[in-house]
Write a structure and sequence with these properties.
Shape: flat
Largest sheet: 9 strands, mixed
Distance between the termini: 79 Å
CATH architecture of one domain: Sandwich
Structural class: mainly beta
Number of strands: 82
Helix content: under 10%
């Protein structure tokens, strides 16, 4: 409803020249500075981005950019020329002047390198790639022909006789399987799906169009060709349909390198990347817009654009040259204006009907109501005779009538009922009902039993029964009713030009405490049982007891409130004469033309389809805000598994497609998610962690729209006091599948205070010099290089799967831990084939991996049989009285041999045999003792001795058993 209906002509003149606003507006972001990005690919299923640059391929998961490592045994990956994703098989194909590369995106491993011999072509300068549905790859080269790869690489023999004379720049395929090949020097070739013969398209406006650099196909099967001379359009029959150049259109530059087509429910938008910026052709193919590096309202990092693509969150990505990287346009704001078919730019109302059609009410000059169908076509309802003249009147309110149709309030014709199929219009006014208060209708409200109609001269209650409408009640005579709402008690709230009236079903009463003499412009009732009251002096919220006033000091763009609406998610949206604002989580977020609104004067707000907000503006048509990616993402930076200090610093960050990075806020919690901290824009926090044991840190992001990440980032860690030591389970081997879990015991005073330990999986590509068969288990214990007291080594246990042995025929007896130090160095370890684990001790934090490998010759020839025995902890308590319940006996073998490990009590009596003549490999081995005898009964309190014997050598170590 347009509440400020008395705006004078002087006031209208003060609005200045009517501007339709930008059809595309939003925030810009820049990534990968210093890179020349020529190709951009979006993986919709995995929500990953791949950027091809002169230095290789970058992977972006929405949080972190990672440059892929150079492929082994292949030419360096650089000067990338083509990029294509087989999403079904998670294969990324990469074309360069040196050949074709395959990267397996799930396993993050290289899948191969293919030169011209493997490709079967005359050249390995791969210039274009395309992946069909089902995963078949098309590859093209410069002067070397084309081929396809299904189970193998197959050059296309007949077409290649022609294509070896052409430099293929681009590939595309239509829905019928016809393949289009754009060349640098010979125009366009078409390969029909059922033939092996090329058709040469030659109907170009001039020879300069023969350089075809990009191809995109729209929903009507039209081919949009980006050429060195402009844009050429072919129809479905491959006949020239149109062409655009700088001389006959607003195309910013004739040299077009990239074409991308953005589809929506209202049509298709064509994006063209050139050497002078980006040109955009609107949904109706009438309106052009441009973005350049020089424009203050554009965020292009460079005008030299080489690729364009969009994602599912309303963003457009541009790969640019000049070492400027990637530019991203948040495209969630758009506008519908006269250029897009709207009858007029002065709009007063918006509503979504049961068929998801957009209804727009305009002023009298624009002639009433227009309906935008889901196929993008407009239907003007102004040409229907209502008996009171044409519907060329100002529309004041639109109300969806369930599944039936729409109610339209007007200033001259009273109330209009439009059927769902738009074929029938019924008019209700003083001519239909003699007692109807006025034909000037300002507010509508449908309740379960009636339709309430607010007019300039009172309130009417209409009873509805199918197509029959009866006038039941007339109330508040000579009162201008401006707004209507109903609360949970079914009390009717009536806003007037001089205050608020409430009807409880029997009695009418004014609410003079805070609304007397106020002009009520809008009413909305939220799910927290509060009534929101829009006025010309601010916004009020009343819960029946408490009143709160919101003005510009609390975050409103302006105190003159025109409309207030409540979205399905509970967000309260407020429109003013100077912008809109959303209230969520006790905070306002303002939106103006700087954010993307086509005009700051807001008359009405509507919601739908899901997560879309529509704004009727006074001069800028209808603005649409797509609240995509409602929930922001949160992630932790530098997580850790162990801390030894009491004051712990946590680092984190967030990401939201609609919110600048600096505007994100965060809340944190430690162990208890019912006790979140207050909001903060800081991306780190220091918390006191005083108790030893496991803890969980939580953090969540709040975006500009006050949306909270529903899945907070979290990580579990262990607090261990260095003086006491403790056990650290990474992967929690006791409660989850043990595969890949790590178990560490840190003896008292083994490490210094202030260390935060993190175990990160270490990726081994499989191509470097490995000591043997890799089990897939490798970890880096960071910070690396931290030395441990050799008298108090850390016990390390790593678990593996039985399937690892069964599927790969790995010999468990040869499993050993290797430490990486300028190559893989044998470390050893004791294998427990029953538990499927390997146990050892370490005296330095480093990178470790589990291999099945033969022993190094240097170890086999070693003469030292047994050395460096240790037992950690030195005191154990089998009954679980607070001390550690087991101890690890570790020792070093200089060569493979049989080992016996026994436990004796202080009297010299044998208590337990832990290993007898067990074959063990060279290196650091470890055996556990749980403090029990051979019958699994707890040993008595007292001193015990561990005896290790190997090759005639014997070492002992005392341990204390405490049972209290």
């Amino acid at each position: 409803m347009h509440a400020f209906r008395n705006l004078s002509l002087v006031g209208a003149a003060l609005l200045g020249v009517v501007t339709t606003g930008s059809a595309w507006a939003g925030n810009w972001s820049h990534f990968l500075p210093q890179e020349e990005v020529r190709r951009v690919v979006y993986d919709r299923a995995a929500q990953l981005y791949w950027f091809g640059s002169s230095n290789g391929v970058w992977r972006y998961d929405g949080q972190t950019f990672v440059l892929l490592p150079q492929p082994p045994n292949a030419p360096p990956l650089e000067n990338l020329s083509a990029l294509a994703l087989d999403a079904e098989h998670a294969d990324l194909w990469i074309g360069t002047p040196d050949g074709l590369y395959l990267y397996l995106t799930k396993s993050m491993q290289w899948g191969g390198y293919f030169d011209k011999t493997a490709l079967g072509l005359a050249s390995h300068n791969v210039t274009a790639l395309f992946v069909e549905r089902g995963g078949r790859l098309w590859y093209a080269t410069g002067y070397g022909g084309v081929g396809i790869k299904d189970s193998s690489f197959i050059p296309l023999q007949s077409p290649n006789r022609i294509l070896r004379q052409s430099y293929v720049e681009c590939l595309a395929q239509d829905s019928s399987g016809n393949t289009y090949l754009g060349t640098r020097d010979n125009g366009l070739y078409i390969l029909p799906s059922a033939a092996d013969t090329l058709h040469h398209f030659t109907d170009f406006p001039n020879p300069a169009f023969m350089c075809v650099q990009a191809i995109a196909i729209d929903q009507r099967e039209r081919k949009w060709l980006g050429t060195a001379a402009g844009v050429l359009v072919l129809d479905a029959a491959n006949t020239r349909a149109a062409y655009y150049t700088t001389s006959n259109s607003d195309l910013i530059d004739n040299n077009v390198y990239a074409v991308w087509i953005e589809s929506s429910t209202t049509g298709e938008v064509k994006w063209f990347g050139t050497n002078a910026g980006v040109s955009v052709l609107g949904e109706k193919e009438r309106r052009w817009q441009k973005f350049t590096n020089q424009s203050t309202k554009s965020g292009l990092a460079s005008d030299k654009v080489r690729d364009i693509t969009g994602d599912d969150d309303g963003n457009i990505w541009f790969g640019t040259l000049d070492n400027r990287g990637v530019s991203r346009l948040n495209n969630n704001w758009s506008a519908l204006t006269e250029d897009e078919g709207l009858p007029g730019n002065f709009t007063f109302n918006v509503e979504i009907d049961a068929l998801d059609r957009l209804w727009v009410g305009t002023d009298s000059d624009a002639r009433g109501v227009a309906v935008l169908d889901t196929n993008g076509s407009w239907r003007d309802l102004s040409n229907t005779d209502l008996g009171c003249g044409m519907l060329d009147v100002q529309v004041t309110d639109l109300l969806r009538e369930g599944e039936r149709g729409m109610w339209v309030a007007t200033t001259v014709c009273g109330l209009v009922r439009v059927s769902k199929d738009l074929s029938t219009l019924q008019n209700f006014n003083t001519g239909s009902f003699p007692k109807f208060p006025s034909d000037e209708v300002w507010a509508l409200l449908q309740t379960p039993d009636a339709l309430w109609v607010g007019t300039a001269a009172g309130l009417a209650r209409l009873l509805l029964q199918d197509d029959e409408v009866k006038l039941d009640t007339v109330a508040l005579p000579n009162t201008e009713v401006t707004a209507l709402a109903q609360d949970h008690r079914r009390h009717l709230w009536v806003g007037t030009d001089s205050g608020l009236v409430i009807f409880d079903g029997s009695n009418w009463r004014k609410l003079p405490e805070f609304t007397e003499a106020l002009r009520i412009t809008s009413l909305a009732y939220d799910r927290n049982t509060s009534m929101w009251i829009g006025t010309e002096q601010g916004l009020l919220r009343y819960d029946g007891t408490h009143l709160r006033r919101f003005t510009t000091s609390e975050g409103l763009p302006d105190n003159r409130v025109s409309v207030v609406k409540v979205a399905t998610d509970g967000t309260v949206w407020c429109g003013t004469v100077n912008g809109a604002a959303a209230y969520s989580n006790n905070a306002w977020t303002a939106y103006t033309t700087d954010d993307g609104l086509s005009d700051d004067y807001i008359n009405d707000i509507a919601f739908g389809p899901p997560e879309v907000v529509w704004f009727a503006t006074y001069g800028g048509g209808v603005s649409r805000y797509r609240r995509s990616g409602l929930a922001p993402n949160t992630f932790v930076i530098e997580p850790f598994d162990l801390v030894t200090e009491s004051n712990v610093t946590f680092r984190y960050s967030g990401y939201d497609f609609n919110t600048p990075f600096t505007d994100l806020r965060y809340q944190v919690a430690l162990d208890d998610t019912l006790r979140w901290s207050s909001y903060s824009t800081e991306r780190s926090v220091t918390l006191a962690v005083t108790e030893d044991g496991p803890h969980t840190f939580y953090v969540r992001t709040i975006d500009k729209d006050n949306n909270i990440d529903p899945t907070p980032a979290q990580f579990r860690f262990q607090k261990i006091s260095p003086k006491r030591g403790g056990v650290l389970a990474i992967g929690d081997a006791a409660t989850m599948e043990k595969f890949g879990a790590l178990w560490l015991y840190l003896p008292p005073n083994a490490i210094k205070p202030g260390i935060s330990l993190h175990a990160a999986p270490f990726i081994i590509t499989g191509e470097e010099d490995l000591p043997g068969a890799f089990t897939g288990l490798a970890y880096t214990l960071a910070p690396t290089g931290i030395a441990i007291d050799p008298r108090k080594p850390i016990t390390l246990k790593i678990f593996y799967r039985q399937t690892l042995v069964d599927d790969s025929s790995i010999d468990e007896s040869k499993l050993a831990l290797y430490r990486y130090q300028s190559g893989w160095q044998h470390h050893g370890g004791m294998v427990d084939q029953k538990e499927k684990s390997l146990t050892t001790t370490i005296t330095q934090l480093d990178t470790f991996a589990l291999f099945e490998a033969s022993l190094p010759t240097s170890l086999v020839a070693s003469s030292a049989a047994l050395s460096e025995i240790a037992a950690q902890p030195r005191v154990l308590s089998p009954n679980g009285s607070g001390l550690f319940e087991s101890t690890t006996i570790s020792f070093t073998l200089g060569q493979p041999t049989e080992v016996t490990v026994k436990v004796y009590n202080r009297a010299g009596r044998l208590v337990r045999v832990l290993a007898e003549n067990r074959f063990m490999n060279a290196g650091r081995n470890a055996v556990e003792w749980n403090g029990c005898n051979e019958n699994e009964k707890r040993c008595d309190t007292g001193l015990h001795f561990i005896i290790v014997a190997a090759r005639g050598h014997m070492l002992s170590k005392p341990v204390m058993v405490v049972n209290k």
